[in-house]
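Input.
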Amino acid sequence: MGVVTPASPCPAEELRAGCAVLESFGLQVKADAGTEYHLRYLAGNDEERAARLSESFADETLKALFCTRGGYGSMRILPRLPYALLRRSPRALVGFSDITALLAACCRHAGVVCFHGPTISTLPTSDEESLASFWHALNGDEPVTVQVAEPVCLRPGKAAGPVLGGNLTMLSHLVGTRFFPLLKGALLFIEDRNEALYRIDRMLTHLIQAGLLAVIAGLMVGTFIDCGSPGDLLDLFTERLGPFSFPVLAGLPVGHGSRNVTLPLGLTATLDAEAGLLTYHQAATAP
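Output.
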């Protein structure tokens, strides 16, 4: 297992604690040197971070790449990465938040299944369900299934398509670039943290007016931490998504909370919004 730092630096104590969790699964951990670098809010300059990640892409002894943390910086290095190399030697890439940009780019340009899941910095505070979900998604031979404990069906229906998405802020900033996910027929999921309600509205409106929600097959709303009251958020989603007919499920345990179940990206699943159920059609590690 390779531990990479494509965005902000990871504090040493968080790195040690997160690596210890990976080692408790019996994994051998190799961390890149970038965990020690600091350049303002970045773990080194763009050239350094891209070079370290490219070296990890080339290291065939690494069966998976686990990001230390989000923060900011992933989107700055996207044009510098050797996607063809990752396509030839695919391996799991895991992270969330700012890492959404990296996951989206690798899904689109390397054609690999990526994993929206915990980072090294969040592993020590992840609950048991999140840890079990992470291990099953990367290591299980059965398809991933997510049953939402308290589903909020904003529009009933069933739909199938590749699961794509992640952090709403990062997705919004990728609009218009060659790294934005190809959403036609997709099941899109979104989550965020510390964004005022009007900013959530603005980002949704941006996606709508860019014509990007008109092509999706379904929408799943993950955890929105410190983004206004839950009632106001649900009202906003109901209002902004009113013109569309695709199924919408809220309450997905994905995002910045202590429960952050792992979702394979780029892999086809079926969403049953009324049942609060997301069922993948194959195991994420299947050939």
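The mean pLDDT is 95.
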